[in-house]
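Dear H.,

Thanks for agreeing to be a second pair of eyes. The structure we're designing against is below in token form, covering all 244 positions.
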């Protein structure tokens, strides 16, 4: 097989392993401090160790796992201070984007957001994973519409780093409804060129989300550790958390 094809296949497999392990981290099937075996992950995914190692190295760069001398791979504890710093930087970037949007014409750049967020309550979605994707798209589109590609690039990197906890915000129905209301208010303020109002709404929106995901993360970890001691699957605690 040509080397290029081999590299492409390894990259595709590594990406699949990366997404699978990251989902396990998100659902607390892999708890902070848990050991990770390359051989076990490879066997479960039906791949060789090469794409597994590439996936783990990517997760290591993102700060989710670590390689300890003589101990192998393990899941890093959730670093809430690091997430706080990333959220703070995200606020700075998005406020800068709002200033540019409110100072100049946006043209049709925000039309796609109006079709998603300025809808009636009966048109709202309820699926948490889809909402997490749409939430990311809302904030990314605001930044991209500001017309600064470097601003958008850095914002995209932060989005990737906080995704693992950020999507916890959409595991509860009331948070989904709140997000619709807050996104609609922010969007209307931007379209009306009301910068101070848009800034206030955006800052409050992100701060509320940050506090909520921290609370949910701690609660989910508590349930996962409890279930692990009782020999119950991680999904048991997840279902309990989402039922509240």
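And this is the sequence the design step returned. I haven't edited it by hand at all.
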């Amino acid at each position: 097989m040509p080397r290029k094809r081999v590299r492409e296949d390894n990259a595709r497999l590594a990406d699949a392993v990366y997404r699978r392990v990251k989902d396990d981290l998100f659902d607390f099937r892999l708890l902070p401090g848990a050991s990770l075996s390359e051989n076990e992950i490879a066997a479960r995914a039906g791949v060789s160790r090469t794409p597994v190692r590439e996936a783990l190295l990517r997760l290591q760069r993102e700060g989710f796992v670590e390689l300890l001398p003589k101990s192998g791979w393990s899941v890093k504890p959730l670093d809430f201070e690091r997430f706080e710093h990333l959220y703070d930087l995200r606020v700075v970037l998005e406020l800068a984007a709002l200033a540019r949007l409110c100072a100049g014409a946006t043209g049709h750049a925000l039309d796609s957001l109006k079709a998603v967020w300025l809808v009636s309550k009966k048109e709202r979605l309820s699926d948490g994973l889809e909402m997490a994707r749409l939430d990311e798209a809302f904030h990314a589109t605001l930044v991209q519409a500001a017309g600064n590609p470097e601003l958008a690039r850095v914002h995209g990197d932060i989005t990737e780093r906080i995704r693992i906890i950020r999507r916890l915000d959409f595991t509860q129905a009331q948070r989904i409804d709140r997000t619709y209301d807050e996104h609609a208010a922010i969007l209307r303020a931007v379209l009306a060129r009301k910068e101070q109002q848009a800034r206030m709404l955006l800052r409050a929106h992100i701060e509320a989300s940050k506090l909520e995901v921290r609370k949910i993360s701690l609660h989910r970890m508590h349930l996962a550790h409890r279930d692990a001691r009782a020999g119950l699957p991680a999904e048991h605690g997840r279902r309990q958390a989402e039922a509240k």
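Two observations from my side: The chain is about 75% helix and 5% strand. The beta strands are 35-36, 65-68, 72-75.

Warmly,
E.
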